[in-house]
Amino acid sequence: MFCRYFSFFGLCLFLPTQRRCSLAHVPSLHSSDTTSLPGFENLTMGYNKYLRPYFGGKPVQIAVSLDIASISSISESNMDYTATISLRQRWTDPRLVFHGNKSFTLDARLVELLWVPDTYIVESKRSFLHDVTVGNRLVRLFSNGTILYALRITTTVACNMDLSKYPMDTQTCRLQLESWGYDENDVTFTWLRGNDSVHGIEKLRLSQYTVQRYYTLASKSQQETGSYPRLILQFELRRNVLYFILETYVPSTLLVMLSWVSFWITLDSVPARTCIGVTTVLSMTTLMIGSRSSLSKTNCFIKAIDVYLGICFSFIFGALVEYAVAHYSSSQKCAAKVPQEGSANELTKEMEEVNITNILNNSITSYKQKISFTSIEISSGNVNCSDLTMKSHEKIKCVLRNKMHRIIGYFTIQNPGNVDHYSKLLFPLFFMLVNVFYWAYYLYF
Q1: How far apart, in whole angstroms, are the C-alpha atoms of residue 218 and residue 190?
Q2: 237 Cβ neighbours under 8 A, 6+ residues apart
Q3: Confidence (pTM)
Q4: Residue 205: partners with Cβ closer than 8 Å, 6 or more residues away
Q5: What pLDDT sits at residue 398?
Q6: Please, what is the Cα angle at 65 between 202 and 69, to 5 degrees?
Q7: Which of the listed residues 184, 218, 239 is the one where a domain comes to its end?
Q8: Looking at the structure, do residues 263 and 143 belong to the same domain, yes or no?
């Protein structure tokens, strides 16, 4: 048997002299000062790392698998996530076939002497390769020329999020792998075992999310320079809403219920009712500001939590306005009673002083004035506008005045005490109905 000796920086392998390599003679990477071991053949003899396997022929098929070690942070303000992954790539290089059925794990620094795929992470913002205590890379060579190349990477990847249902949202993020320079005529990407090519993601324990499901896809990216193979890992993250219920939803609901306490306090207790209304409004404002502090101010989404806090604020503010209306109506009614009592006393005194003849004369004189002069003055009651002596524009004024009095009468509160009585029933009822529609919409639609 004719054999030749060649080495990978001192690592020597034994191969037959007949090699499957159609390349022309290229500069050898063999170093004259490298010591060869007996029984091994130099694999770097005639190997050119700048040319892909099957150069000029069929594309290289690269099988990929992933291990998701952790997803350390998911940022809604930056719309990205940070993950630590182990990326494993397998391909066959016929120039590295050797005799035997063993595999050899090579020093990771020898990867500089081999051709490796130019795989990159699409939509990556920042990435780095772990290098403690040495570069976290693995190179394993099999006898049939298959190479296993593994890397440990931490990367921050963009993830477009729809926060309209926050915090009852489900986000779909992707991890996409693509060839940078080799198009589909040179390289093809495949998942090693379909969905089973991804490990570790089902065991992740995240602070706010739960991984609902994940699946793998293979597609192509059409660019101006060609069509490039792409692998996609797509996973769905559902936010855990229990934390937000305890932190925001329950306190805001209790503040609304606290504002209803004022309905059981009498209208005369101005300091007590005013204090409850103002305190609940200020507390609700503080809660709304705190709920938005965790998200970026540039985020213009109207979120589900903003809608709920807005509803609670409206009910609290409505309870404060309700007291203002009831108290104002009560004060107006009391002010109207005082002049009526005073006028009645004065009328009694005048009736004692004036005789019956003067009363009759005054009555006849005022009646004649009403007949002769049809001027229309604003009064508290409706005026008969069907008088034949009235002019057309005076009739129009009369009709308009009567309609205005009727409209004002609709908004006139006859008994201010009934305002609190109805509020005790209407405020809780409307709040319950709004909650039913709110939770049904954001949980099931």
Answers
A1: 7
A2: 74, 170, 171, 172, 173, 206, 209, 210, 211, 212
A3: 0.72
A4: none
A5: 79
A6: 45
A7: 239
A8: no
